[in-house]
Amino acid sequence: MKEEIIRVKNLVKKFGSFTANDNLTFDVYKGEVFGFLGANGAGKTTAIRILSGLSSPTSGKLNVAGFDVYTETEKIKKNIGYMSQKFSLYEDLTVAENIRFYAGIYGISPKRRKEKMGELLKKLEMEKAKNKLIAGLPLGWKQKLAFSVAVFHEPKIVFLDEPTGGVDPVTRRKFWDMIYEAANDGITVFVTTHYMDEAEYCDRVSIMDAGKIEALDTPAKLKEKYNAKDMDEVFLRIARASPNPSEGGGQETITNE
Amino acid sequence: MAQLLSFIKKEFFHIFRDPRTMLILFGIPVAQLLIFGTVIKNEIKDVRIAIYDQSKDETTQQITNKLLSSGYFVLVDDLQNTSGIEETFRKGEVKEIIVFESNFGEKLIKEGTANVQLIADASDPNMARLAVSYTRGIINDYVQKMNPNQELPMQIQPEVRMYFNEEMKSAYMFVPGTMALILMLISAMMTSISITREKELGTMEILLVSPLKPAQIIIGKVLPYLLLSIVNAFVIVLIGLFVFGVPITGSFILLMLETILFILMALCLGILISTMAKSQMTAMFISMIVLMLPTILLSGFIFPIENMPEILQWLSHIMPARWFISIIRGIMLKGVGMAFIWKETLILIGMTLFFVAVSVRKFKIRLE
C-alpha cells in the first residue's frame, strides 16, 4: 500500500473574483516524483505556494507530511524544502556562507553541517568554488547549489517551482539526475514545470488548465489514454478539449501576488 | 538562538560587502555634518519672549509696545525678578528675555545712556541670533525716532547674553539635527531596502518557507542596523564634542537611551515601509520623500518651527525627528533631565508602538 505524504481535498484559492485553484483534489505518494504541469497561469504556482505555506487556501482540506496546513504550519516548515525559479541564494555571500546560513536557519548542528557540506561540495565538484561569491558562478552551478541547499536539511518533501526555468537542455537533464538522486534518498519531489519533455521524467503527472486538474496519472498511461506519442501531444489534446483554455502568460503575475 | 545568530551573521555579510551600504552607513554622516555646518539665514515671526521691566516707565513701555507691535514677538510672561530666567529657558517656553534696568527712561534722558539686557536661548543658535538682532534693530529705531536730529547724545546699550551657547556656535544647531537625520536615514532607509531586496531576489520566500518565525526574521533584519546605528550615534556625539565643541551638559546615559528609542522608532518605520514597497527603488523613494525631506525641512533642524506657516507647524508635530531634536537639544545643551522631556519621550514611544502595530499587521497580511 502506498503511503500518502500530501493529501489535498477540494482545494480552492480565490483572489477576489478570480479563482486560481478550482476545487483541486489529489494525493502525492511518499518517495515519488510528482509533476505539476500546466501553462503559465494555470494555477501551478498558486498551488505550490499554498502547499509550502507561503499562501493560505480559501477552502479545502490539506495535509502535508502528516500535518494540517491550517494549524500545524510550523511543523510542516521543518519537514519541507523549497526552491523557486529564482534559485534564491544570496549573491553577495560565498558558496560556503550560503550553505552555513541555510543550515543555520534549519537548526542543523555545526558538526553535522561540516560533514554534510564537505560531502556536498565534493559531490557537486565545487570544492574550489567554496569561498567564491555566488554572483560569479555560472547559472547551472547556482541551480544545482540552490537545489542542494533546499534538501540540505533532509526534508520529507521538496517543492520545486519551475526549477529549470531559463536553463539549457543539457543542464536541465543534469538537474533531473539530482532530482532522481533525492527521490532515491526517500525525499518526495513535487515539481512544477511547463516543459512537457520533463513530464516524462516524473513518476506521475497532473495536468492543470485554468485552475482545474484535467488529468492525473503516470506518463505512460496518459499517453495511452490520449493516444499520443509524447507528453506534448497529451497536453495539447487536453488544452484543446478544455472549454476554457488558458491563454498562457498573463495570469501568473496575479497568482504570484 | 543559534538560528538567529546565523541569520544575524548573514546580515553583517550583506552590509560589509555592499559598497553602497557602507557608503550610506559611514560616508553620508561625515558629508552631512560638513554640509549642514553652514548656517542658513531666515526670518522670524511670533517669537515668544518674556520681559523683566525694573523701571516700568514711559520709555520702557513704549519700547515694549514697539517690540510687540512689530509682529516679530509675542509676550508670554512678565517676570518680576531674575530668579525665574534660567528655569523659563529650560522649560523652553520662551526664546528671549528682555531686561530693562531700573530708572531706564530717566537715565536715558539725563545721562544719555541706558542699559537693556537681551538674553536668548541659544540652544537653537539660529533662532537666538535672529531674535537678538531683530530686538536690537527695533530698539535702535526707537532711539532714532526719539532723537531725530541727533541733538542729544542718546544711546541705549543692549547687553546680549546667549544662554546654553555663549559663543553662538552653529555646531550646536547642526549636531543634534544631523544626528536625527542620519539615524533616520540609516535605520529606516537601510532596513526597508534590505527587506525589499530579499523580496526582489526571492530569498524572502525561502525565509518564509523555513522554520524561522516572522518575529525572528524581523529581529534578524533589525538588530544589525540597531547596533550600527548606536555606533554611529556615538561617533556623531564624539565628533560634536571633540571637533565642534558641543558639550553634553546632561546625562550621557539618558542621551543614549533616548537615541536608542529614536533608532527603534526609525527601524519600525523602515519595516513599515518595506511592507508597503515592492522593490528596493520604491523603498528608497518612499524613504527619501516621506522621511528625509520632511526631517530636514519640518523638524526644526534648520528652519525654526515657530516661523513656519501654521499648517507646516501642525505637520511638524508628526515628524518624529522634531521631538528627538528637542530631546537632544535639551539633554546636550540645556542639561535637562527626564522631567523636562517626558512629553517628547512619550510621543516617540507612542510613535514606535504605532509603527510596530501597523507593520506586524501588514507583515501578517503579506504572509496571509
Automatic annotation (TrEMBL), chain A:
- Keyword check for Nucleotide-binding, yes or no: yes
Q: Which PROSITE patterns match?
A: ABC_TRANSPORTER_2 (PS50893)
Q: Which Pfam families match?
A: ABC_tran
Q: In the record, what terms sit under GO molecular function?
A: ATP binding; ATP hydrolysis activity
Keyword Membrane in annotation: no
ABC transporter domain ranges (all copies) = 6-235
Tell me the keywords, alphabetical order. ATP-binding, Nucleotide-binding
Its domain of life reads Bacteria
InterPro entries per record: AAA+_ATPase (IPR003593), ABC_transporter-like_ATP-bd (IPR003439), P-loop_NTPase (IPR027417)
Q: What is this protein called?
A: ABC-2 type transport system ATP-binding protein
From TrEMBL, chain B:
Q: What range(s) does the ABC transmembrane type-2 domain occupy?
A: 132-366
Transmembrane spans: 21-40, 171-195, 222-246, 252-273, 285-305, 340-360
Instruction: Report keywords, A-Z.
Output: Cell membrane, Membrane, Transmembrane, Transmembrane helix, Transport
Q: Which domain of life is it from?
A: Bacteria
Gene3D superfamilies, from UniProt? Answer: abc type-2 transporter like domain (3.40.1710.10)
| Family as reported in the entry's similarity comment | Belongs to the ABC-2 integral membrane protein family.
Supply the name of the protein.
Transport permease protein
Q: Which organism is it from?
A: Tangfeifania diversioriginum
Read off the lineage from the record: Bacteria, Pseudomonadati, Bacteroidota, Bacteroidia, Marinilabiliales
